[in-house]
Every structure is written in C-alpha cells, then in structure tokens.
C-alpha cells in the first residue's frame, strides 16, 4: 500500500528564496504551456498540442533559459506539464458529460504552490534515516534542506513533493509499504450519521459534538479580510509591507481553521477504527447538498425573481463546509484500510424517517430536527440515533449480500 507523510521544512533564508524561485519558474512553465495549447485551439489550422509534444520541447527551453529553467529538475518540469495535461483531460471529460466546466486558467505566483518530483533520486533525494539526528531532503537547485521529521518513514520512498502554505514550506513523501498488520478484532459494528447540530451520532447512542471551527474564527476572519480589502489590488511584487502582513494574517487564520478541522477528523476517525470492526455510513453527495438553489423567475414581472430561500441555504451550505464531512470520510476510509477494518457506504434515503421498531416510513415521523416519534407504533428516540441504526442495518445487509 501507499502511505503519505507530510513534514515541515526548515530552510535557510537563501534556501527559502531558491524554493520561491523554483515555484515561480514552474508556474511560468505551466502558464507558457497553457498559452501554447490555447493558441493551437484558436487556430484550427494548427495541430492539437499534447503532453508528449510539450515534453519534447523541454530540452530546448532549458538550453534557451538556463538561469530560470535549466537549473531545476527535468523530471519535476515534466510533472508540471503532466499537471496541465490532467487539467485538460478533466475539462474534456466534464464537457463530454454535459457539464459546464471552466477552461483551465493561468496561475498566478501565489496560486501555484506545489512542485512534484515523480521519483526519489531524480532531482531530489530523501536522505533521512530512522536514526538520523538531522534529517534532510536534497532538492536540485536548492540544496540539502533540514526537515522536522516528527515520525519515522517506513517503506521505500516513491515520490517527493514540495509545498508552500503561507510562509511555511512542507515536504510530502509517498512511501510504498507492505500491508500493515490489522488491529485485533473487537466484534463490534456501528453505524454513523453525520450532521450539523452534532458532528456525528452512532447507533450506540453516542454523540460527537460539532466543534464549528469556522464559526468560532468567523469574527477574526471577517476583521482580517476587511483590513485586507482596504488595500488596492495589485501584483504580489508590488505589495507594501503592511499589505503583505494583511495577506499573511488572512492566510494564517484560514490555515489554523483547516488544521483544527483536520485534527478533529483524524482523532474522531481513529477512535471509530480502534473500537469497531465494521463501520457503516451514509453515501452522501456533499457537492449536491451544498449547491445554491436555482433562481425562480417571476412570471408576472419579467426580469424579476421570486424568493427561493437562497439566504437560508447559504447558511446551511456554510455549516456543511465547516463540518468537513468529505475530509472526515476520506480519512476514515484510509485509516480503516490500514487497520484492516471494513467501511460500508449505504443509501441515505429515508434513514431518519424509518422507525427502527416497526419499519414505518413517513416524513411526519420526524417532527423536529432532534425528535423522532413513530406515528404507527409510538416509538420515540433521537432522530440521529435512529438514522445511525438504520444505516448500520443497511450496511450489514449489504455486507452479507456482497461478502468480502
């Protein structure tokens, strides 16, 4: 299996400058390749441009501009061109599916923050060992950069990526490992229901509160963004010192909320994986759930629109994004795979409206957000616990119908 590791880099001032130049030059390469594809599309007489054609031009580009392009790893530049190729492949795939995707866009220096090295030893080298007192990673054009390795890396390192987050630099490794030894069986199965009032409710009646990290930081974020909005929009190199500090403050607050959300998701998922052998959850279509409602034209007044509940839906969408269900489910599946646990996704339809005692399904069974009262048998319970129990039952049915 493949496992990823993310470590903080501690570059010197000169190395940090070289890392920033590496991002700048890869961004320039990305934008130049995108411009070439746009020109070819606008002129039908020209043949279409593919990754192979652009990769073949790298030698000429590096020879023409040795100071900016020739100093970096050839394989990392190929990875940047593959990144653009994947963007176009996704664009054409969405077009064929009948969607309305946006055309791949040019990247500003502040919006290009990752450089990939497809193979350890080709333009980069992970020099750290488990007993190395000063772990380092060697990057072509930058040098040996110190790494804050907070845990050992097991397995053989396959790829290396350098990422910038605000003013911090990180190295992301992917390592190929043998299948880890599964955790001891507990004999426990559980169903979970994700929500807004409570982040999670399980079929055993346990609730995990919703930390609402985004809402807690909303006032500080609003103040920081208002302070930033007072500066005129300009390129990064033209910003004053106060402007840069305002940008860094907004980025710092967003980064803190993101780290808090990830920490909560990791700890909650780890607790579930350690305690249960089988975990069932709803197969939520989060993107559809957080869509803005379609406008309602007013038939009596051309050009006017009726109320469609967009304001209330916007608040719900913000709460869904703040909860971070998608990130949590992704982490849950990854941890379950490493621990030898089984995670089952089931259809969420009517899970909170079906009585767990008699099976009666009706919208009126759930009179409020929290209360469940069956109109047929009179059973009462917390609506989220009822939903989690129904999710567990559906998951067990699916598991027995499709044995692993």
Describe this structure in words.
The protein folds into 2 domains: 2-176, no CATH class; 189-401, no CATH class. The mean pLDDT is 91. The protein is α+β, with helices and mostly antiparallel strands. Helix 1 (13-42) crosses helix 4 (74-96), helix 6 runs antiparallel to helix 7 and helix 7 (241-275) crosses helix 10 (325-339). The protein has helices spanning 13-42, 51-56, 58-64, 74-96, 213-216, 218-229, 241-275, 286-289, 310-323, 325-339, 383-401; strands at 2-10, 114-117, 124-126, 136-139, 143-148, 156-165, 168-176, 189-194, 198-202, 207-209, 278-282, 296-297, 305-306, 342-346, 371-373, 380-382. The chain has 11 helices and 16 strands. Strand 12 (296-297) and strand 13 form a beta hairpin.
Précis, in short:
By secondary structure, the chain is an alpha+beta fold. 42% of the residues lie in helices and 20% in strands.
């Amino acid at each position: 299996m493949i496992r990823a590791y993310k470590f903080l880099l501690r570059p010197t001032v000169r190395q940090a400058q070289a890392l920033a130049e590496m991002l700048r030059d890869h961004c320039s390469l990305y934008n130049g390749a995108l411009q070439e594809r746009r020109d070819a599309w606008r002129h039908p007489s020209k043949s279409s441009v593919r990754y192979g054609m652009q990769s073949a031009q790298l030698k000429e580009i590096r020879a023409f501009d040795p100071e900016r392009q020739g100093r970096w790893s050839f394989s990392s530049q190929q990875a940047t061109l593959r990144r653009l190729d994947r963007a176009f492949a996704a664009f054409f795939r969405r077009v064929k599916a009948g969607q309305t995707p946006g055309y791949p866009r040019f990247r500003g220096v502040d919006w290009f923050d990752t450089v990939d090295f497809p193979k350890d030893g080709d333009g980069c080298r992970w020099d750290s060992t488990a007993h190395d007192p000063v772990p380092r990673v060697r990057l072509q054009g930058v040098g040996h950069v110190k790494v804050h390795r907070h845990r050992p890396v097991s397995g053989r390192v396959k790829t290396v990526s350098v990422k910038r987050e605000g003013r911090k630099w990180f190295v992301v490794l992917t390592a190929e490992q043998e299948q880890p030894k599964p955790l001891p069986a507990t004999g426990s199965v559980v169903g979970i229901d994700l929500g807004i009032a409570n982040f999670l409710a399980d079929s055993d009646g346990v609730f995990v509160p919703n930390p609402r990290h985004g809402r807690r930081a909303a006032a500080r974020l609003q103040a920081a963004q208002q302070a930033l909005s007072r500066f005129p929009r300009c390129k990064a190199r033209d910003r004053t010192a106060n402007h840069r500090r305002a940008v860094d403050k907004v980025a710092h607050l967003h980064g803190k909320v993101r780290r808090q959300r990830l920490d909560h998701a990791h700890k909650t998922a780890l607790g579930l994986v350690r305690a249960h052998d089988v975990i069932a959850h709803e197969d939520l279509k989060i993107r559809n759930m957080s869509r803005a409602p379609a406008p309602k034209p007013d038939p009596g007044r051309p050009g006017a629109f009726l109320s469609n509940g967009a304001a209330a839906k916007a608040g719900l969408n913000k709460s869904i994004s703040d909860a971070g269900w998608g990130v949590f489910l992704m982490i849950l599946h990854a941890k379950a795979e490493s621990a030898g646990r089984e995670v089952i996704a089931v259809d969420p339809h009517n899970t909170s409206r079906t009585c767990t005692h008699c099976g009666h399904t009706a919208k009126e069974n759930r009179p409020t957000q929290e209360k469940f009262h069956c109109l047929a048998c009179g059973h009462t319970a917390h609506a989220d616990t009822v939903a989690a129990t129904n999710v567990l039952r559906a998951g067990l049915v699916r598991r027995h119908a499709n044995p692993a």
